[in-house]
Structure formats: structure tokens, C-alpha cells
């Protein structure tokens, strides 16, 4: 007797219910669920589909991750009174505040206060203060909601990025886009529901912060919910083209034969990963036709290129990534995450930050205006920001024209637009030092709960049982939906 064959042929309890799901199992399920769940108009591809939730304000999300953490003090958190305190030593003051120091500044004898050297101007109906480094962003001040009171638990990049992308500083958690794919399902059949874009052509002086695929991984969720990264050079997806001599029909027959083998294995073993593998093969087959059309920008007008800026024609630039994000949304992709690295200015901040801002400013402006013109902004949520803030004191030497800043988790700024967000407002306040939050704090968990709320999901209801715990994007600690952000 072959023990493996005996095991494969054994009918487990799980296999019994799976194999009878179209009979007794389906009848029992139908008696427990509301009839509208089975209506033909319902999208049954996601966990939350058909379950009464909050009225959604957005259908999809573009999340722009500024990896390395831009300085809130130099971009959005205007503190003009600090200019007269230039080079004041904050050593004792920081001790009184209980400041956490990284290894990069813990050995400093002094901590000289470094006011921003950049000019700020008021924009929009609300008079939002925005740095001269972001002139295009200033033009759309009435479209965005600036949150100045973000805070996080992490003081170093990798855990901070994991927290803002997955809701946890621990490895193995599902990313934000994966949660949305799991909860809401896909709006297309030919592309993944979660796509990642890397703006690799960044400014020449950038201190490029390394990131890992954990930031867009599916963790304990099925692999089909993981983000699919489109490459910025060469083929957008590796091995997208069939080998020479392999026709489309031949590839289809090969997949059909492979699916028969996998289906037989699944019937014997019942391993859900087999089904997952089959779905990935089918998605890859469909992407062979959909991705070349997606990445061919020849149909875009000169008006569109001028909106995003001249770099939008060059693959790998931030402007090109934002244009690609709009095209992905048009084709039904649920969540697009754009990673732009190089915001870790521990030194030469005035030079490098100016270069980084030039990389992204017109591209993100073009995206918001393009979405508005196409009637897509109202049901698309756009989030733009880094993983934490930067210190008020200088890292290393300080001069009148040059300084660097270390990591600061106690306060930072980001902005949101579309998806029901009320534009032209500033939410939250920091103290006169841009050090502590004095009004309306927003934790990373609150940001996640608010994003889910925009999409019609109560964050406590979106969960997945794993290792004895109901896992959630917002974790087990309290999270608040910031409803004041919405119109």
C-alpha cells in the first residue's frame, strides 16, 4: 500500500464540504445569507462584496510613498518664528522632551536648531502655507487636504515603512493593497487588482533608501492578493512574451493541459495553493495581451504630456509613473502604489530636497488635474506622503545655507485628495517647534481606518483568522476614522 496515495484518496471533513458545496453546502449557505448577495449585479469576488457596509466614497486608491521621509518643516509645516533662533542649542530641551535619538545623532555634542531656509506662500481659498519647493502643489491647494498631525511608532525606515504599508512593524503581515484586494475583490479580469510602480529615475543627489517586497506582499493572505510590480526598464513584466515558435493558441492549450493536472491534484489533496497557482497562470496569460496595450502611451495626447510634464514620456520617471497609474485605474485596477525614493536627507538637505521636489511636483499635480478632467477624482482616493518626519535640529554641521535632519516620528505631514475628501483644508497642528502635535493627532492606524472608510469598509470588520488571531490592517489597538476630512 502506498501511504501517499492513501492520504490523497482520504476524504477529509474539509474536502467533504468543498466537494458538496454546490449541493447541500450551497443550500445551507443560501439560507444563512441575504438574498441580494446572490444577485447577478453583485461583485462576489471580494470578502466584503454583498455585505452591507458604509456607503463608499471611493472605488480605488493611488498611494504615493515618498520613501526616506521628507521634511515637514521645509515643505508644509511653516514656522517663521524659528528663524531668529538659528543655531540655538536644543540639547537640554531635547532631554526634557524625552527625545529618542538614532545612532546617527546620538553622539552629537550639540543639537543646533535649523530653521527652514525656504520661503513659504499661502495658496487657495484657505490660504494654505506651502513651500516654494512645491509650486505646482500650491496651484492645487483647493484640491488637497493637508494633514499636519501625523505620527508613528517607528523611528527607523524599515519598520516605519512596514507600519505605514502593512499596519505592523513585524514581518509577514499583509500590505494595504492586498487587504483591499482581499476585501473588495478585483474590478478587472486582465490585470491584477494591486499594482506597484517604482519611479527609479530620481534626482542625482538622492540618498536612496532600500525597500523590500514585504511592503506590497500579501503576507498570510493568498498570493493572488500581492502587489504585482511593473518594471520601469525593459519588459514591464519579465517573461511576458512567449518563446519563439510558441503561438498564442499553443500557449492556451499548454495552460489547459496544465490546469487539468492541477485540478486533479487539487481534487486529491485539497491544497488551496494549487488553486492559487492556477489563477496566477491564467492571470499571466491574460496579462500577455493587456500589459503591452497598457504600457503603450502612443495614444496619449500632447495635452496630457504637457499636464504631467516633459518627463512623463520617459519610463521610470515619477511623472511617467503617475500617468501610468491613471491608465491602470481606467482599466479597473483597485490599488496602485507608487514608490519614489531618495527623501532621506541627513545632510545637504537644501540641495537634495529641492531636487526631489522637482521630481514629483508637476507629476502629482498633473495626476490630480487629469483625474478631475476625466471625472475620476471624486471616486479615486490619492494619498501622498512619507513614513515619518524630520527633526527641527541639524544632523551634523549647520550653516546659514546647509543642514541635514534626522528622523522624527512625533509629527509629520501628508496630504489626501479625492475619494470624498474635502479639499482646501488643513487638519491638525503642531507646536511652535514642529516637534509635538497640539491638535487633532492622526496615527498610522487612523490613516488606515480612514482609507478603508473612504472605500466603504468598517476597519474592524475586515479581518482574516491567522495563528489564532483575527488579523486586521488596523491591528488590535484602537483606530479612529477621521471623518472631519470628508466633505
Question: Could you describe the 3D structure shown?
Answer:
The structure is a single chain. The protein has 14 helices and 17 strands. It has 487 residues and is α/β, with parallel strands linked by helices. It has a domain of 335 residues: 3-Layer(aba) Sandwich (Alkaline Phosphatase, subunit A). The strands form 5 sheets. Strands 1, 4, 5, 6, 7, 8, 11, 12 and 15 form a 9-stranded mixed β-sheet that branches. A two-stranded antiparallel sheet has the order 2-3. A hairpin with a 6-residue loop joins strand 13 and strand 14. Helix 9 packs antiparallel against helix 10. The N and C termini lie far apart (69 Å). About 7% of the residues have low confidence.
Could you please say which CATH topology of the domain at 59-80 and 115-242 and 301-485 applies here? Alkaline Phosphatase, subunit A
General form: globular
Number of strands: 17
Report the end-to-end length measured between terminal Cα atoms. 69 Å
Radius of gyration of CA atoms, rounded to a whole number: 25 Å
Report the sheet with the most strands, covering strand number, pairing sense and barrel closure: 9 strands, mixed
Q: Tell me, rounded to a whole number, the average pLDDT.
A: 87
Structural class: alpha/beta
Number of helices: 14
The low-pLDDT segments are 6-11, 16-44
Second rung of CATH, namely the architecture of the domain at 59-80 and 115-242 and 301-485: 3-Layer(aba) Sandwich
- How much helix is in the residues? 25-40%
Q: How much beta, percentage-wise?
A: 15-25%
CATH class of the domain at 59-80 and 115-242 and 301-485: Alpha Beta
